[in-house]
Amino acid sequence: MLNENTKAPICLVIGASHAGINFAFSLRKQGWTGAIIIFDQDPETPYHRPPLSKSYLTSAEEANNNLLKSLESYEKENITLYLNISVKKIDRIHKTIITEDGAIHQYDKLVIATGARPLIPPIKGLEQATEVHTLRTANNATTIRRKVKEDANKRVLIVGGGYIGLEIAASLRKLGTSVTLLERESRILARVTSPEMSQFFYDVHTLNGVQIHTNKNVSSITSKGDTNIINCNDNNSYEAELIILGTGVIVNTELAKDAGIEIEKGIKVNQACQTNDKDIYAVGDCAFHHNPHYNRFIRLESVQNAVDQAKIAAASICGKEVVYNSIPWFWSDQYDIKLQMVGLRVDCNEAIIRNEEETTYKFSIWYFLNDELLAVDAINNAKAYVLGTKFIKNHLKINKTNLRDSSLKLNLANLILKK
């Protein structure tokens, strides 16, 4: 039993990605004087994950060059890291967790930051195929990079046209790799953005040499030597030496569910990231939380959400009255394109595209529900992103006529609707 003879409070954290690590350091900053102990099954010192599908694939970068915190920081803040070890059970009655080696660790407060894992689709022959990969960890990215660089003529096929699939495609094209991408929906990014933005990224990737095929549902994979033959329901087939699955994720809720914690599209939490057990919190990708601005429960996969929830949970555990009410924001880097997104398009019934006059690769799409601005997608346009954030957060009304007029400067004075 860890620290069983001490009266100092113990906070255990399951998961050492952005949510878990930021929580631990925030908790110490908020004044927690007891033990803080983090468990994670990844053997690497906790690192930034967004670069894995971007710069990490195209460089000789290693995870140790991309750490969330230095090892010295953990020592300085008296935070203990247990890496390369899985937690197998949460015992709420005795307030303990049990790790894979059978060790029992007691807690006063427990934070679940277990995130998500790649979804492996039920494709016939997938397990027998050669060189099938997912991208979630530094080890995944290192393996893909090594395999691609071993053979400049290696053909890569990506299953899934979401942001991860497209970012991987962009990174591999920078290396000169042949890339084919299959998406089962009628357009890429179908579940996360508008048809206009989908078309933009389709055009960008096509111009950069990615072969994109939509309405492709992979039914089976057969192998001939080092070559995989990927067969689709429409009887079309594609060949590749390496397959990357970007088909979504499964939320890691099993530990919480087995412990009797409420689950609904994730681990359900209140405004302070607290579960139905007052001593257990959940933060990051695994947390299903209420967003006051949009008045709905949502689950977000973003660094912003992980960091913000970590701070809220830490403050709550230290006895402060807090409410998680951040406006969601995201970003994606592909080639020389930076997409910045703020807000949620839910219930959108109007989209206004604003093209800036300087360049075709600088524009923004503004999503409305009647007169309320819901979200903004900005391409190489930080000003649109910043202004959009201000309008959404403060419920400001926009002069749509001026928004459409690209001859007018994009600023608060021109956009705000005067009564």
Structure characteristics:
FAD/NAD(P)-binding domain; 5-stranded parallel β-sheet; 419 residues; 3 domains; globular; Enolase-like, domain 1; 24% helix; alpha/beta; disordered N terminus; single chain
* Spatial order of strands in the largest sheet: 3-2-1-7-19
* Highest CATH level, the class of the largest domain: Alpha Beta
Compute the number of structural domains. 3
- Given as residue ranges, the uncertain stretches (5+ residues, pLDDT < 50) are 1-5
Q: Any idea of the CATH topology of the largest domain? A: FAD/NAD(P)-binding domain
Strand content: 25-35%
Give the radius of gyration. Answer: 23 Å
Give me the CATH architecture of the largest domain, please.
3-Layer(bba) Sandwich
* Major sheet attributes: 5 strands, parallel
Summarize the structure.
The protein is an alpha/beta fold. The protein contains eleven helices and 26 strands.
How would you describe the overall organization of this protein?
It contains 11 helices and 26 strands. The strands form 7 sheets. It has a 5-stranded parallel sheet with strand order 3-2-1-7-19. A 5-stranded parallel sheet has the order 9-16-10-11-12. It has a 5-stranded antiparallel sheet with strand order 22-23-26-25-24. It has 3 domains: 176 residues, FAD/NAD(P)-binding domain (3-Layer(bba) Sandwich), CATH 3.50.50.60; 116 residues, FAD/NAD(P)-binding domain (3-Layer(bba) Sandwich), CATH 3.50.50.60; 80 residues, Enolase-like, domain 1, CATH 3.30.390. The N terminus is likely disordered. The N and C termini lie far apart (66 Å). The protein is α/β, with parallel strands linked by helices.
